[in-house]
Design a protein that fits this description.
There is one protein chain. Helices cover about 25% and strands about 25% of the residues. It is of the alpha/beta class. The chain is built from twelve helices and 21 strands. It folds into two domains: about 160 residues, Lyase, Ornithine Decarboxylase, Chain A, domain 1; about 240 residues, TIM Barrel. Strands 4, 14, 15, 16, 17, 18, 19, 20 and 21 form a nine-stranded mixed sheet that branches. An eight-stranded parallel barrel has the order 5-6-7-8-9-11-12-13, surrounded by five helices. About 45% of the residues are buried. α5 packs across α6 and α8 packs parallel to α9.
Length: about 425
């Protein structure tokens, strides 16, 4: 469920017509619903009521500080993968003792930053990172709280580019080696072993891969405890998918049942890192049709939004529902169209051969389920602007990121002065 629906014949974000926002800020822009974010966070949290759970939102999904603050106010922590995300999470009010730092290539500066903020834990993904962290912590006279991310060799049955738990993926430490690695880590003077972590991918639409990974994790905990390691905490990552194209996906309640069945009796505090599940359907990309072009074999709706604004269709072959801002008349004739952007790439395509009501230049469209991995992945390719982000709450809206024009970006570029 989300809070983007037709009211009085026009698409509204909660109680604000998207056309009203478009008139004020111009197109394209991202629009987020506070009520949807709050509802999704609440439903996910309630699904985990049977276990000791801390929800750490995956900041990489949507890092706008206004979005993060909504969840911080509801008690969320953060899963971050860079120093910049750590800074954003803290600025949004997420407490350091609920922040986890993940990522396969954390730099020494990033590790030092995490230690200086006294965050909950650092998820270590390799032995070289472990030894670097031990050295840095020693130089700072602190103890580094470490969870070891295991690679369980489980296929998440999701898109190849967002699978992270197979043996050939770059993430984590092979599960067959984790026992020896932790035994060696326990002898390092500036490392505290807080637990294990696992994350097998994103946009999972089946529960069995989660179950398989959690069973493997449970068995590893038993082996490590038999060897004298306490393992007080398990970080179960995120990855539960959302229905981009109206396909059925498991509910948070069904996911929570799997967690309880497999890990309910392991006596660990559990961390969860949902991202897309919370914000994906809480955002839309609002765009205007620039031209309607009749091609030799296709009819094209050419938008003012492009692949630099929303990369997912080009990068992942992702499908997003696209709807008009004016409610179609019941029984209206549909036209088969390609919905494309203006960038000089064939990949700048949002949808191919979909049926939409007859449209003309100037009409507004909304690309749904764009709240996750939308604005955060946007770029200035073709020297295009970074587009605004707007947050709606009830009948009010606020611009939470201004449009950043090329003229502003040019202020950070210089012509070289080769003269002495």
């Amino acid at each position: 469920m989300d809070h983007f629906e037709y009211k009085n014949g026009v698409l509204a974000a909660e109680d604000v017509p998207v056309s009203e926002i478009a008139e004020a800020v111009g197109t394209p822009f991202y629009c987020y619903s506070s009520a949807t974010i709050e509802r999704h966070f609440r439903v996910f949290s309630e699904a985990l009521s049977d276990v000791s759970a801390t929800v750490c939102f995956a900041v990489k999904a949507n890092s706008n500080i206004a979005v993060l603050k909504i969840m911080a106010d509801m008690g969320a922590g953060a899963d971050v993968v860079s120093s910049g995300e750590l800074t954003r999470a803290l600025k949004a009010g997420m407490p350091a003792n609920k922040i986890v730092f993940s990522g396969v290539g954390k730099t020494r500066d990033e590790l030092a930053h995490a230690l200086s903020e006294n965050i909950l834990q650092i998820n270590v993904e390799s032995e070289p990172e472990l030894h670097a962290l031990n050295e840095i912590a020693g130089s700072m006279s602190v103890i580094a709280p470490v969870a070891f991310r295991i690679n369980p060799d489980v296929d998440a049955h999701t898109h190849d580019k967002i699978s992270t738990g197979r043996s050939e993926d770059k993430f984590g430490i092979e599960w067959t080696r984790i026992h020896d690695v932790i035994n060696r880590a326990s002898k390092l003077p500036n490392i505290e072993i807080t637990g294990l972590a696992v994350h097998i991918g994103s946009q999972l639409t089946e529960l069995q891969p989660f179950r398989d990974a959690f069973i493997r994790l449970r068995d590893i905990v038993a082996i490590l405890r038999a060897d004298g390691h306490a393992i007080p905490r398990l970080d179960l990552g995120g990855g539960l998918g959302i229905p981009y194209d109206s396909a059925e996906t498991p509910s948070p309640a069904e996911y929570g049942k799997v967690v309880s069945e497999v890990l309910g009796d392991v006596e660990c505090d559990l961390l969860f890192e949902p991202g897309r599940l919370i914000v994906g359907n809480a955002g839309i990309l609002v765009t205007q049709i620039v031209y309607v072009k009749e091609g030799a074999t296709r009819r094209f709706l050419i938008l003012d939004a492009a692949m630099n604004d929303l990369m997912r269709p080009s990068l992942y072959d992702a499908k997003h529902d696209i709807v008009p801002a004016i409610e179609p008349i019941s029984g209206a004739n549909l036209e088969r169209v390609d919905v494309v952007g203006p960038v000089c790439e064939t990949g700048d395509t949002f949808a191919t051969e979909i049926d939409l009501p007859a449209a003309e230049a100037g009409d507004l469209l909304a690309i749904r389920s764009a709240g996750a991995y939308g604005a955060v992945m946007s770029s200035t390719y073709n020297s295009r602007a970074l587009i605004p982000e707007v947050l709606v709450k009830g009948d009010k809206y606020s611009i939470v990121r201004e449009r950043i024009e090329p003229d502003t970006l040019l202020n950070y570029e210089n012509l070289p002065n080769w003269d002495p």
